[in-house]
Amino acid sequence: MPSPETSRFQLTSNLTICRILNGMWQVSGAHGYIEPKRAVEEMFIYHDAGFTTWDLADHYGPAEDFVGEFRKEFAARRGRERLSEIQAFTKWVPRPGPMTRRIVDEAIRTSRMRMGVESVDLLQFHWWEYDDARYLDALKHLADLQHEGRIKHLALTNFDTEHLRIISEQGTRIVSNQVQYSLVDRRPEVQMAAFCRDHGIALLAYGTVLGGLLSEKFLGRPEPRRGELNTASLQKYKNMIDPWGGWALFQELLAVLKQIGDKHRVSIANAGVRYILERPAVAGVILGTRLGVAQHLDDNARVFGFATDGEDDAKIETVLAKSRNLSQLMGDCGDEYR
Ligand SMILES: NC(=O)c1ccc[n+]([C@@H]2O[C@H](COP(=O)([O-])OP(=O)(O)OC[C@H]3O[C@@H](n4cnc5c(N)ncnc54)[C@H](OP(=O)(O)O)[C@@H]3O)[C@@H](O)[C@H]2O)c1
To answer: What's the predicted TM-score (pTM) here?
Structure first.
C-alpha cells in the first residue's frame, strides 16, 4: 500500500478515495489494444497496491464491463463483504435531447448492470450544450435516483464555474467536478478552485501528466510529430502545449521538474502530480492506466512520500510566467467541449 494516510482523501462522510485515481479512458481502444482478461487481472495489482479508486465512463469502451468483471472476480476470490474496498466512479455523457425520467433511468440502469453495482459510488454528469437547459432536468432525475439508492453521490465533469454555480444554487448537492488541471492547463485556478473550496466541492484533475508527455521520456526530445504520438491522450495534450507556449517552453518546464524531482528523489511525473495535489480544492489526480500494456504503479506511489516546497514553486513559476493564459484563449474549464 502507498503510505495509507497521505494517499487517502475523505471525499464525503462515507466515501474515502485514493488521491491517485486509475483512469480508464486508456482502455477505450483509442490508446492501443487492451486484452480484457489481462486488464481485469491487473486491476487486482492496482487494488492491492492501494490504488483502489477507478475513474471511468459509459463511453470508455469496455471500462464499465471491466469493473463488473473485476468486482465479480473480487467477490469470488475475497468475499462479497470486501467489495466496499473498491470505489468506481463512472460518468454519464448523454447526447443532447429530452431528459425524461425514463431516459435517465435507463442510462443509469445500464451502467449499474455493466458495473455489477446496486448503487453507483459517484455518478459524474457531462453536458455538451449550455444553451440547452435540459441538463437541469437530467440532474433533477439523477437526484431522484440518488434518493432511491441507485446513486450514492452526484458529481459533474467539465462544467464551468458559471453553470456549477447555477446547479449549486438550485440545491443539488454536487460532490466533485472533474476537470483538466495540470502545470500547463491551470484554468481551474482562475475561478473554479475558489468556488469549489467555498462550496465544499472537490476537484478531480485529469490531464495532469499530459498523456505521459510530462515525464523523462520526453525530456530533451525534439518536438514530436503528430504521427509519433500513438495515443489519443498524447495527441490531446500536445494540442494544449502548443497554445500554452510551445515545445521549447515545455522543455524548460520539464527541465525544472527534473531538478525538483532529483532533489526529492522522485520523477518528473511525480513532481507534476504533487504540485496539483497540493492546490486548493483538489481531492485527487486521475492518471490514465493502459491496463496490461504499461504500468507506473511504483513510480506513482512515490507521490505520497514527499511534498514540494516554496523553492520548487518559485522555480516552476519562472517557467509558467512565460506561458500564455489558457483561460483567456480557451475560456473556463471544459469550454473546449462546447
Ligand atoms: N472528464 C473528461 O473529459 C476526461 C478527459 C480525459 C481524461 N479523463 C480521465 O482522466 C484519465 C487520465 O487520462 P488522460 O488522458 O488525462 O491521461 P494522463 O493521465 O495525462 O496520461 C496517462 C498516461 O501517462 C503515462 N503515465 C502515467 N503515469 C506515469 C508516470 N509515473 N511516469 C511516466 N508516464 C506516466 C502513461 O503512459 P504509457 O501508458 O504510455 O506508459 C499513461 O498511459 C482518463 O483515463 C479518464 O479517466 C477525463
So the answer is: 0.98
